[in-house]
Amino acid sequence: MKQAALLAQLRDIVGAAHVLTDGDLSAYEQDWRKRVHGKALAVVRPGSTQEVAAVVKACAAAHVSIVPQGGNTGLSVGSTPDTSGEQIVLNLQRMHAVRQLDADNLTITVEAGMVLQTLQETAAQAGFLFPLSLAAEGSCTIGGNLGTNAGGTQVLRYGNTRELCLGLEVVTPQGEIWDGLSGLRKDNTGYDLRDLFIGSEGSLGIITAATMKLFPQPAAQLTAFAAVPSMEAAVRLLGLAHRHLAAGLTGFEVMGKFALSLVVKHMPQLRVPFADMADAPYCVLLENSDSESETHARARFEHLLELALEDGCVLDAVVAENMAQAHELWHIRESIPLAQAEEGLNIKHDISIQASRIPAFVAHTDALLQRAIPGVRLVNFGHLGDGNLHYNVQVPEGQDGKVFLQEKEDMVNTLVYDAVAQFGGSFSAEHGVGALKADKLVHYKSPVALQMMRAIKQALDPQGIMNPGCILQR
Ligand code: FAD
């Protein structure tokens, strides 16, 4: 009865068409990897900040919890409801307007439901670059990117989403609207509330709009694909690239041979350079952005690659001749998660370790896993420039994926995350904690840090209605 009254109230606020309770709601109720299937009381799709605030007030009064959701592409199960059938999914996708593009101050203010690719295109049409870029950009939203503090392929040069954000508008768990939409690049007036909400995965409030930084478009952008003899060589190449390209180095991705072989197998239309090269266990994708000209960019890039060939950290390399070829090379890198999914079930780890320690970590952890699981297949790729690896374990050939996961997933996770901790790294570099890794947070975060996090949650959301179980366990 109480629920029926709340639903009626929500229909009044956002319109009956935007309170979904029937039909196939799987796009909202199951996570992107389809591993978790929840059940919501309703999916509510507000069209304005005022509607979000009214929805939150109604839910708070009814003690009903809320799961904020953007594109639902998150990889840590933070945007889907639990199985109780008692939570509201608050989907922001209807809120996708540009509020202001300020060319003088290089900022753009958009609503949280704007799809990342639309934001990139809007910036490009005005002659600017919005540099956040990730494979899910066609569906993820800027609200979700802020919620998870997403990383992607340009972090090396432009930072995570946090570094790209100047201000936020947030609806608090009490339904109040905080207008923090500042375009200020400096503002040291006390605690940084903006940074508190960024990366909080919907557990402290709902981001309804954001002011983001814009950058000048580079005059030229070049991409190279290089075969390297080892992970040590890849890290040496990273050092050379930093020294010789400086701020021009905007992307540095590593891809293991097995990861690339999955792309060759499942996406035969893509031509993967050096796929057959026996002595190249890794390939690296480098991007050089240049503010002068294509000629300048090419000369610098070719000089770097000559030095790398002399050093021996590169065995062979190709530089894309044009943008179409560059996109093809990036497409190879971005197809790895899909190729992995085509191959079957796998256990994903999104970890970060200081780049210089990654070769030792990989050697150590590969050996442990090979000892623990005969026939283990390791899919290793990621943003090496940021010390961020997607260090994934594919089910051994011929084994039942579900049985393997049931029997081995916990052991594999413990082995990998313990090794990460031993090397001073993080068990979640860019995908967040969500519900999936809330138990890992308790295990790997220091008690002092946990205590402060719980105090912040208690202060902002004493009723505990914002995404309960996400980040902090219930
Ligand atoms: P959702 O999945 O809907 O939500 C993610 C989290 O943010 C949830 O906890 C949710 O409650 C919260 N949230 C959503 N909207 C709001 C809001 N308005 N206010 C407050 N909280 C909110 N991530 C990376 O960092 N780097 C990558 O390179 C990368 N590559 C990916 C590639 C693929 C193929 C896929 C599927 C995912 C990838 N991701 C990557 C993960 C994912 O795309 C990002 O986490 C993205 O930022 C999520 O955006 P979303 O709109 O889909 O958010």
UniProtKB/TrEMBL annotation:
Residues 36-217 form the FAD-binding PCMH-type domain. The keyword Flavoprotein applies. It comes from the Bacteria. The lineage of its organism: Bacteria, Pseudomonadati, Pseudomonadota, Betaproteobacteria, Burkholderiales. PANTHER family: BLL6224 PROTEIN (PTHR43716:SF2), D-2-HYDROXYGLUTARATE DEHYDROGENASE, MITOCHONDRIAL (PTHR43716). Gene3D superfamilies: 3.30.465.10, 3.30.70.2190, 3.30.70.2740, Uridine Diphospho-n-acetylenolpyruvylglucosamine Reductase, domain 2, Vanillyl-alcohol Oxidase, Chain A, domain 4. Keywords: FAD, Flavoprotein. The keyword Flavoprotein applies. InterPro entries: FAD-bd_oxidored_4_C (IPR004113), FAD-bd_PCMH (IPR016166), FAD-bd_PCMH-like_sf (IPR036318), FAD-bd_PCMH_sub1 (IPR016167), FAD-bd_PCMH_sub2 (IPR016169), FAD-linked_Oxase-like_C (IPR016164), FAD-oxidored/transferase_4 (IPR051264), Oxid_FAD_bind_N (IPR006094). GO terms for molecular function: catalytic activity; FAD binding. Its cofactor is FAD. Belongs to the FAD-binding oxidoreductase/transferase type 4 family. Transmembrane segments: none annotated. This is Hydroxyacid dehydrogenase. One of its GO terms (biological process) is respiratory electron transport chain.
